[in-house]
Specification:
Layout lengths: L2 H33 L1 E2 L2 E2 L2 H20 L1 H8 L13 H36 L11 H22 L1 H12 L1
Antiparallel strand pairs: 1-2
Length: 169
């Protein structure tokens, strides 16, 4: 198997977890359809549909094309059969797995904060206004930085593995 095959397995596992998260978000959509609001704050059905369906669509795409996605991430010149996997390729795969792990949580947090922000903007005239504290705004910024950081780890996994191998020698 090549490095891209191992990464394709990780992409498929990530798609399963993302699909399960999308199913959890369907409960929000059901509440929006039935109540027309979330906790008394009016919410557009289109927004609820986007929040619930987008993780499911992304998970289906990841499930359908894991090898294509892994070949985009891992360059063809370094994607060789891994009979005895060298330390650079193995470390790169581990770094990619860590990046995908943190990317999942960053996406989940980002969806949460986008939903919270949307609700706070649209709940100002409702019976139960939702305000964002300074701590919430700081958490939004931290989630955005975490999302960018996890994308950076995924994109620069080769450079990170090379740097870690240079430090070890």
């Amino acid at each position: 198997m090549k490095s891209s095959h191992y990464l394709a397995i990780a992409v498929r596992l990530f798609s399963i977890v993302l699909f399960l998260y999308g199913l959890e978000q369907l409960s929000l959509l059901i509440e929006i359809i039935i109540e027309g609001s979330i906790n008394g704050a009016p919410v557009s059905v289109l927004f609820g549909l986007a929040i619930a369906i987008s993780p499911i669509i992304v998970s289906v795409l990841l499930w359908s094309f894991p090898l294509s996605i892994s070949q985009i991430i891992i360059r063809p010149e370094i994607d060789k059969p891994t009979e005895p996997m060298d330390s650079h390729s193995l470390l790169k795969v581990f770094i990619l797995a860590i990046g995908l792990y943190f990317f999942y949580f960053a996406v989940v947090e980002s969806i949460y904060w986008i939903t919270t922000w949307y609700l706070s903007v649209n709940s100002q005239n409702s019976a139960v206004p939702i305000g964002l504290s300074e701590e919430s705004k700081a958490s939004m910024i931290t989630s955005g930085i975490g999302l960018l950081f996890s994308i950076g780890v995924i994109v620069k996994s080769r450079a990170l593995s090379s740097l870690l191998l240079k430090i070890a020698r």
